[in-house]
């Protein structure tokens, strides 16, 4: 790639950086790659596969005379890749930690009632007509499932499993009954013993994307915009996404409504039917888009094309502040000091007037700033100890000095260091 670089041909130092994994690449490289470069990347991917290495970050600089340095940063259990970007990645400072939205519990819904369309008797008649030979679960088995899950199932869900539990007498999966049950219900049905609560942790996309997400519950939404809930009882799938009965609906929802948990989304779920009766009878509905409740002023962006002042972003509900590219006077963080819910700050290099103001943000759990800003915090001993994860935003993608800086940050939490390798050689002048 360096051999194709126009900078080298113009007698200027040339740089290339990024990450290569067994299955893809994130490269900071101008222009399109030549066939030779693509072949080289494929060779590296095969080498990674042979060595059992998932991915490697690198940066290289070639002088006009051919003197070249190549820095490699090896995979680390304390670094999450920054998906889609050639950055070093996210430093996980607290083992097993999750961004706040994935720890959020559902708001109580004591007044929630079943939908007017919920009709357990009609549901049972319909299912028995469609599944005349099915063998259902006993009341004791249903009670045992409730004890295991720690919830009281909806009357409709109990009816479903009184008719069929998809398993034979010896708890062996009955494929024929499962196929008939799936056709009768409208999805690939799980057995009673395989009912589960949708786990928020399983849907966590990592800190790279998770830290900047927020959850809000607007008064007119049917489904709470959570990652998971003890009251989202998964009972089937469409082959990829999960259908669940919702026992913790939003303010405008119904107890026992049916929702779809999209495997490509990490927060929220889609309403598909007001009741299990509706679902089985094919009476589907969809909550209007734009009413998920997570567009409240809990997140704000400042910079070119966004808000132009920090004051405009300051609000007691603010959780996530992102400072984008900015060509004006650097911003002071004074307007957001003391905000009770601010947990994430990301700022492009050079956009902060005084990085030490970060130390006054006492609730931060994620911080992404430039290398120079991190240097100021480290030298002053002012890195917030509330952090659970962190990232270093760089412009030139030179991973080696960034990795050294990252190791200083990791040392504050006694985390394992990142391993680096530096190679030097002579590529000769460009052809």
Describe the protein.
The protein is α+β, with helices and mostly antiparallel strands and 431 residues long. It is 23% helix and 21% strand. The chain is built from 11 helices and 18 strands. The chain has helices at residues 6-9, 35-51, 120-130, 139-149, 155-163, 175-185, 207-210, 276-281, 310-313, 371-379, 399-412; strands at 14-21, 25-28, 55-62, 67-73, 79-80, 90-92, 188-189, 196-198, 229-237, 242-246, 257-261, 270-273, 299-302, 320-323, 344-347, 366-370, 389-393, 420-426. The protein has a 7-stranded mixed beta sheet with strand order 5-6-17-16-15-14-13. Strand 9 and strand 10 (242-246) form a beta hairpin.
Index terms:
7-stranded mixed beta sheet, 11 helices, 431 residues
Topology (elements, then pairings):
Layout: H1 6-9, E1 14-21, E2 25-28, H2 35-51, E3 55-62, E4 67-73, E5 79-80, E6 90-92, H3 120-130, H4 139-149, H5 155-163, H6 175-185, E7 188-189, E8 196-198, H7 207-210, E9 229-237, E10 242-246, E11 257-261, E12 270-273, H8 276-281, E13 299-302, H9 310-313, E14 320-323, E15 344-347, E16 366-370, H10 371-379, E17 389-393, H11 399-412, E18 420-426
Parallel strand pairs: 13-14, 14-15, 15-16, 16-17
Antiparallel strand pairs: 1-2, 1-3, 3-4, 4-18, 5-6, 6-17, 7-9, 8-9, 9-10, 10-11, 11-12
How many DSSP H or I helices?
Answer: 11
> What is the end-to-end distance?
12 Å
> Which strand-content bin applies to the residues?
15-25%
Structural class: alpha+beta
SSE pattern: HEEHEEEEHHHHEEHEEEEHEHEEEHEHE
